[in-house]
Amino acid sequence: MRAAVLHEIGQDKLEVFDDVEAVGFGPGKVKLRVRATGLCHSDVSAMSGVLPQPAPFIPGHEGAGEVIDIGDGVTGLSAGDRVLVCWLPACGTCPACKRGQTQLCLAGFMNAGTPNFKRPGGDVFGFAGTGTFTEEVVVDAGCAVPIPDDVPFEIAALIGCGVTTGLGAAINTARVEAGSSVAVIGCGGVGISTIQGARVQGAAQIVAVDPVESRREAALRFGATEAVAPDGLADAKQRITAGEGFDYVFEVVGKSVTARTAYENTRRGGTLCIVGAGAMDDNFQVNMFELFFDEKRILPSMYGGGDVLRSYERAIALWRAGRIDLDSMITHRVQLAEINDALDQMRTGEALRTCIEL
After folding, report:
1. What is the layout of strands, in order, in the sheet containing 122-126?
2. Contact 310/332 with Cβ under 8 angstroms?
């Protein structure tokens, strides 16, 4: 079967092979035929080494498709079912799951160290234990979440990561209040979803911040009340909040420098929500006096900060009701052979979200 493979961490191009095999099928496993997958910035971060991932590996974790076969002991799924890929399934038994913090379950991460593909040259890993830049993939049964028949595969794929992460940051983690002021730094697919979440929550002002003009223009279409380049944030803060700072600031880049900017633009007593996934050696610093004196809440948001199955259902309900726009988030559609063009479009900011059709 065909799949896009990264040979070594640090390479910026993928190579598409037709001699890849999905392996590991057995009890508790499900084999999927991938029909659509989104290109998420986390895939690029894994390729560059910002996010830890053994290589060679197949990127992709934002996918949807059909069940081909189920292993022994799998219940609730059957061949032909339409599903989205959950890259962080909850085991239901660990301490985090028992506390109701299923997004912090580590069971899914344990799969990342086990190859689920192979080529004639040896084993190949799947990013985050999945790897959806391929025609078929074997995953734990918990990674295959049934979707209603009216949800297209490309929409389901987005819900599998970027949409859930962004919406959840605003709704679950920060719990944006109606009438509040919001700034979102970084307006790719996750940032746009954060903007839509803040709009659903009733924020009065939503300022989108991004260096790429096309992304700023997109942010306005998805609910931002204004959009500025990074050097325009200080002026927006002064005009909208009289210099006090925003009630909520979302950092959706994953870098300490933008996290610091977000902190400085959050009002005293306000909320800084960290949504971007960054590198382990990139340290965010605050001094002990400002931490105490300003009483700003610093809230990291992992995969939307809530139960992902409930978050999927909510995203579908909001999409059906026309409260969020997911269709327009897909600005580019490519075939697997064009994957490197899609990567370039993401890096330059030309693409908001790219759907890879398989």
Report:
1. 21-22, 117-119, 122-126, 57-58
2. no
DSSP 302: S
For residues 76 and 11, what is the distance between their CA atoms, to the nearest angstrom?
Answer: 40
Q: How far apart are alpha carbons 294 and 193 in whole angstroms?
A: 28
Task: For residues 167 and 354, give the distance between their C-alpha atoms in angstroms, rounded to a whole number.
Answer: 19
What is the C-alpha end-to-end distance of the chain, expressed in Å?
11
Closest by CA position to 128, among listed 145, 140, 146: 140
Q: How many whole angstroms separate alpha carbon 161 and alpha carbon 90?
A: 15
Can you give the pTM of this predicted structure? 0.95
Residue 350 has pLDDT above 90, yes or no: no
Integer CA distances (angstroms), 272 to 35, 172, 192, 227, 228, in order: 37, 14, 17, 19, 19
Q: How far, in Å, CA of 276 to CA of 7, rounded?
A: 25
Which of 301, 299, 317 lies closest to 309 in space, CA to CA?
317
> What are the DSSP E strand ranges found in the chain?
3-5, 15-17, 21-22, 29-38, 57-58, 62-70, 82-85, 117-119, 122-126, 136-140, 144-146, 181-185, 205-209, 226-228, 246-251, 266-274, 297-300, 330-335, 353-357
Predicted confidence (pLDDT) per residue in 60-108, tens digit? 999 999 999 999 999 999 999 999 999 999 998 999 999 999 999 988 7
